[in-house]
């Protein structure tokens, strides 16, 4: 009798295992992540986001400030950005040879416009071949009653004729 009881117990265990295997499985995978939309910074109210640009056009656009929007057209308020400027300069070494070097300047601006100190001097420094960098762009993303700071894409502007 003990063999029959043992066989019955094993058959019930197998039957329970098979019944469990037959049940529909729930999806245990995590929900797919939303694609993160990274806002792109633009100079002024234009679609310019980097590359070659004339110095007069860059001056006019910079005076308008920075704007930011993502690929779906959502607009963001710019909270701050880092302005970098690489200026080509010609120096003379100790032997009298001319040497072309880059002088670099960097300044963090709060808000969407250049600070007063930078804007008073930078426009006169613009010349052919200089490079303007806009990095570390911080934008405000409204989320309900609060706003969240997120990073946006910067740009590189190369001054041309």
Order of helices and strands: HEEHEEEHEEE
Q: What distance separates the N and C termini?
A: 102 Å
Helix content: 25-40%
- Dominant shape: elongated
**Number of β-strand runs:** 8
Alpha-beta classification: alpha+beta
What is the radius of gyration computed over CA atoms, rounded to a whole number of angstroms?
31 Å
Helix count from the secondary structure assignment: 3
Q: Please describe the biggest sheet, giving its number of strands, its sense, and whether it closes into a barrel.
A: 8 strands, mixed
Low-confidence stretches: none
Name the beta content range: 35-45%
Could you tell me the mean pLDDT? 82
Short description:
By secondary structure, the protein is an alpha+beta fold. The protein has helices at residues 2-22, 55-64, 116-125, and strands spanning 40-43, 51-54, 66-69, 75-92, 98-110, 131-143, 146-152, 155-160.
Structural account:
- This protein is of the alpha+beta class and 161 residues long.
- It is built from 3 helices and 8 strands, in the order αββαβββαβββ.
- Strands 1, 2, 3, 4, 5, 6, 7 and 8 form an 8-stranded mixed beta sheet that branches.
- A hairpin with a 5-residue loop joins β4 (75-92) and β5 (98-110).
- The protein is elongated.
- It starts with a helix and ends with a strand.
Topology:
Blueprint: H1 2-22, E1 40-43, E2 51-54, H2 55-64, E3 66-69, E4 75-92, E5 98-110, H3 116-125, E6 131-143, E7 146-152, E8 155-160
Parallel strand pairs: 2-8
Antiparallel strand pairs: 1-3, 3-4, 4-5, 4-6, 6-7, 6-8
């Amino acid at each position: 009798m003990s063999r029959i009881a043992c066989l019955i117990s094993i058959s019930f265990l197998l039957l329970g295992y098979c019944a469990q295997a037959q049940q529909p499985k729930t999806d245990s995978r995590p929900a797919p992540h939303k694609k993160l939309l990274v806002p792109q910074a633009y100079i002024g109210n234009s679609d310019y986001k980097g590359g070659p640009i004339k110095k007069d056009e860059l001056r006019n656009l910079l005076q308008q400030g920075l704007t930011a929007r993502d690929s779906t057209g959502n607009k963001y308020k710019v909270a701050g950005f880092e302005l970098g400027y690489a200026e080509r300069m010609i120096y003379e070494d100790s032997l009298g040879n001319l040497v072309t070097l880059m002088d670099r300047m960097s300044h963090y601006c709060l808000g969407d416009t250049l600070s007063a100190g930078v804007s008073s001097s930078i426009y006169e420094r613009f010349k052919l071949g200089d490079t303007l960098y806009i990095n570390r762009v911080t934008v405000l993303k409204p989320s309900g009653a609060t706003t969240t700071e997120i990073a946006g894409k910067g740009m590189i502007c190369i001054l041309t004729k």
